[in-house]
Every structure is written in structure tokens, then in C-alpha cells.
User: What shape does this take?
Amino acid sequence: MQVTPWKVELESFSDKTYSKLAKQFGVKLIDEELLERIKKHTKDLHFMLTRRVFFAHRDLDWVIAKYEQKEKFFLYTGRAPSGPVHLGHLMPWLLTKWLQDKFDVELWFQFPDEEKFLFKKELTLKDTEKWTYENMLDVVALGFKKGKTHFLIDTKHAGIMYKHAVRVSKRITFSTAKAVFGFTHETNIGAIFYTAMQAVPAFLPSVLKGKNIPCLIPLGLDQDPHFRVARDVLPKLGYYKPAIMHCKFLPALTGQSKMSASNAVTAIYTTDSPEEVERKIMKHAFSGGQPTVEEHRKKGGNPDIDVSFQWLYMMFEPDNKKISEIYHAYKTGAMLTSELKHYLIDKVNAFLKKHQKAREKARKIVHKYILEVD
Ligand code: TRP
Assistant: This one.
């Protein structure tokens, strides 16, 4: 298996796979005890926590302990603009939004508009500029708090970020970068430096406030390597190690890999029409059902490998009672694949209808989220 910021290859989407990865990465699984501790402050728990869509962490217990000592944390996450936002991108952001609301904390959201420019041959800075704007609309549409949410755009905010990126970069050798990210002698030097820029928002608020503030980073597991490095470096500069919460990957429609923005067939974008959503799911969603209706009624389907079910479980059906009813109905053959798919289509389209409306409204307010610099 390979999980790096540039490549994700999983043998499956099962719990066993993710436990293996947690071990490989040296991260802790989120357990009941930790969830109970969070619940003391949040009153309820988001289904992405109880269902372990967010399944692992580094120092989350420490962040909560600090919070209990009246030392509030800030949230940090990001998106490298390279194309349209798809449903898989939204998953960690939805929990980030919940965390912001429940703990009433600041969110720093990075748009490293140089990242994919450096890593993808075909992308120009003009492209990434366009995608930065488009992607910001999706983030604003999720309803993050105005005034408490700060967008950092690397090329725009270089003036306040670069100095601190340089401090980080001095503490990372090429041999570390090579080992962690798999760089070679053909890698351009911008790409090698990039991780220093991604480290900056993890301590920039501390720099600006002139005191150390704990940082919590919800992210997809593939982004962990950046912060493995940052966690080594930041204490050497006098800052806290950032804490991390790891989200699983939303499988692509075809089920073979994580959803990828560059595959229009197996990804659903936030801007897709209801018809496109229906067509993509009906045609491509990998099914755990039987080849014929008779066989399906007799033997039942397998929700554990069925992508439609996985999407409902991870993202689109928060109701625990309903999700377990669907699980059993599908497994016993009472529910057919086409019924399951239609159930999902309705859920996705209801979500997107709301999202697309909010996304249009975001055009008017997006500038208020971008960090002001003087
Ligand atoms: N590198 C991430 C991407 O490819 C973007 C990013 C920047 C990010 N900072 C982050 C992701 C912090 C998670 C947490 O999209």
C-alpha cells in the first residue's frame, strides 16, 4: 500500500486496512474514551466520529486537555487548488465545520496555490488562480464562521508566510524530504521546499498573537507526512507540535481508489447537476449486489463493499437507525441495488442543491474570508 500526499493506493477500504495504515503511520486510533472526553464539551458527537470516518489522531487528547485548562486551540486545514472540488474533499471540511461550531474556535484555511503548480506539469499559475477562487466558494458555502475563519493564499500571503517557511526549511534536510516524500534528483526544487509552506499555518497564529496556541489539523490521511515533518521541526522553533485528526478516504464511484478530481467519471463534483449525479451513480457506482434480482433476493447483497452504501455511511445518512435498516435490508436482499442507488442519489442531490445555492451566494462574501494584510 502506498499513502503519500502524491499517491494513494489502498488494498481495500476495510477497517483492517485502516488499522494497518495507522500502525504504519504511527498514529493512534480514536477510541471510546477519547470520544467521551470530547462529548463532555460538545454534548453530542458527529457521526463521522462515532463511525470512525475520522479514525485516527496524533495528540488529540493533548488538545482537549489544553482546552480543559482554558487554552483554546485553533483549527487548520487546506486545499491545494488544481481543479473542481469533489465530494471526497468536503468530507473532512464538514467535520471541521462541526468542530468550529462546537468549540467556537478560529479556523485557518490554506490555499497553497503554488503546490499543484509545482507538482503537476500541465498546470499554470493562471489555472491555479482560477481554481483558488472556485475552491474558496466551496469552502465558504459550508458555512464557516465569518470573522473566525481566515483564508491564506500562499502567493498572496507570501509576505507574512515566507519568513516563517524559511525558518522551517532550514531544519529539514534533503535526505529527510527524500525519505518522507520520495523525491528524486529530477524533482524541482520548488516542490522540495513546498512542505515548509504547508507547515506555516500550524504556527502562524501563534506568531501573530505572540503566544503559543495549540493547533488541531483535520486532514485526509495522505497529508499526514507533511505534519510528521512539521511536528519534528516546530518545537525546535519554540512552538507546539500540531495535533492531527485523520479522515478516511471517500472511495471513488468505481470503488477501486479514493475519489480523484482528475477522473470525471468516478468523482462527483460540487457543481454537478442532478442529472449528472444520477447518471454517474447509476452507471458507475460499484455494487455489492448480485447479478440478477432473483439471486439478490435469495442471497442478499454485500454492503461492506458497496460504494453507494459506503457513501451513505461515511457522509450522506447521519441517522443511525436508518443506516442500520439499510444495511440489513440490503444484506438480506430485501433492498435492491437500484433502490439503494436511488436512495443515495436523492441524498446527494438534496445536499448539492443546498450547497450550490450557498456557493453562488459565496461570491459576494468570499473576500471577507481572505486574511487582510497591510
Ligand atoms: N496539500 C493539501 C492538498 O493537496 C492542501 C493543504 C494545505 C492541507 N494545508 C493543509 C490539507 C492542511 C490538510 C491540512 O490539497
User: Anything to note?
Assistant: The chain has two domains: 2-254, 274-360.
